[in-house]
Amino acid sequence: MLRFIVRRLLQLVPILLGLSVLLFAWLRALPGGPAQAALGERATPEAIARYNELFGLDQPIWVQYLRFLGRAVRLDFGTSSRTGRTVTTEFLERMPGTVELTLFAMVFAIGVGIPLGYLAARRHGSWLDSGAVIGSLLGVAIPVFFLAYLLRLLFAVELGWLPGSGRQEVRIDATHITNFYVLDGLLTREWDAAWDALLHLVLPGIALGTIPLAIIVRITRASVLDVVNEDYVRTANAKGLSADTVRRRHVIRNALLPVSTTIGLQTGLLLSGAVLTETVFAFGGVGSAIYDAIFTRDFAVLQGFILMLAVVYVLVNLLVDISYGLLDPRVRVR
Amino acid sequence: MTAMGDVRRQRIDELAARAGQVPEGEGGVSLVRSAFRRLRRDPVAILGAVIVVVFLFVAAFAPWLAPRDPLAQTLLGQVRPGFIPGAQEGFPLGADQLGRDLLSRLVYGSRQSLLIGVVSTVLGAVVGMALGVLAGAFGGWVDTVVMRFIDIVLSIPSLLMAISISVLLGQNQYALMIAIAVTQVPVFARLLRGSMLAQRGSDYVLAAWALGVKRGRIVFGHVLPNSLSPVIVQGTLSLATAIIEAAALSFLGLGDPDIARPEWGAMLSTAQAFLSVRPALAVWPAVCIIVVALGFTLLGESLREALDPKFRR
Predict the structure, then answer these.
(1) What is the pLDDT of residues B153-168, one digit of tens each?
(2) Which CATH number goes with the domain that contains A121?
(3) B252 chain-A contacts, CB cut-off 8 A
(4) Is the whole model's pTM more than 0.90, yes or no?
């Protein structure tokens, strides 16, 4: 198992290096180059020249790349041209919100998706089954940001049941230790602050979780349908095990293997979707920061955020891979 | 690289391996004909095909089908802050925030949306297939380099990838198409490579080798044609993703800024600002996007079943 983990970790090295080359080249290829990216679009030519000299942009390209790499390893991606703060500070401040949101979305997708997919398969051909299939097709076809707007309009603006923007009610004077607002509320025993932060997750979380939900329903359903027709399930039934035991020990356990891998695959989808949902709900996470950065041409933020998100994505997939290795011994051998 | 790579690769390999098999008991009937025969009996396929054909028809004949000029601000006089004219004589769906006929804009919008979807998918498929053929045909270090590159592209979540390309290339319809195409490349590359690897040991490839047929002819004459059905399936499904992704990029302000070309994604994102005034402005383009995406998905899924020997009965 240790060897499996080490091997997977080593496989990360070329990918991370490639990522750094790609994003280094990206910033260089932008009109105006890194100087403009750092100083903003209205920088004077003198300022750009001074910047180029200061940061060694008159050096050969490979020297520049190595320096970029050196800074990237120390998580130094320069400063935001909009706020003047370092990109890493901004990222660390905003990432907890996105993590909370994606976790909520994932819990929603799994919590609803697996039971729904399972029931649809067990009642194969019923109205519940057809509904689940149609719903899961629609869930993939609907643009995330439109769904987000609809949810916000209906439940926040019209009905007023749930908050429709931000991460927490500004009137609540909450203490923030970790920037995970729900966790902060629990740690400081400010229960109303935690509850309020949680309520703020509901609408964006549901919007964000819809695509993974649709996919999980479909895969669970297909997988359960496959498994119930397996010989070992028939054997288990024939040898007189109770329906409950067959369900728990044979059907669900085997059916969930393919589902567990898809869950890992959804991370990229969630990070993509977070840009859209966070923007609609003015959520103040990493996603809405990317939207702001696009509009203000804040290239340093874009570069740093995209690189760091890609690293997060790769690491999450690594974790999923390792946990899958734990679940299914066959994976380790390959 | 990671779980994602493995699973996707595994699925693509399975798909690709099946693509080359000749179905039992169907000798004499070509793959295409037998697939078509099954598609005709499948209501889901028919529904998908009807949707796709209707929208393609609308896009092709937009100038004749649209009741009005999509750019003419005929009803501008009726537009007031907090009020956008609804359905009335000659304007079955009402007007947009600038007094233009919504129905005509939707009809014309189908052109641009489908064009973006088709061009970016074809572009992504061609580049991806080329990379896949390169990796699969040459193997060795070429394979390693190509697949590592694909892994790197895959390590950036697709929308973020599209955003960075759009920002780099500026805002125009070509940048939009290229940005979406790049996110489609990895799937097709993997698909083709897997298919080629699966066929490498097959009898007809070995026979061709033994006869001294050159590598190029084996690849383009034997292996490639046998890999096409999973590519067609994936292409149909990718069209749906491409159209939705184009809408997302429009929403982020990275769409085509040319107002002379109405496009559903752009219409949908502008309409968000008027959602409380007149929801129909957002609902109609959204419905178009959803229905088209659904149409391509249904068609793709039933094509998968029709072309897949596992489902043959």
Answers:
(1) 888 888 888 988 888 8
(2) 1.10.3720.10
(3) 275-276, 279, 291, 294
(4) no
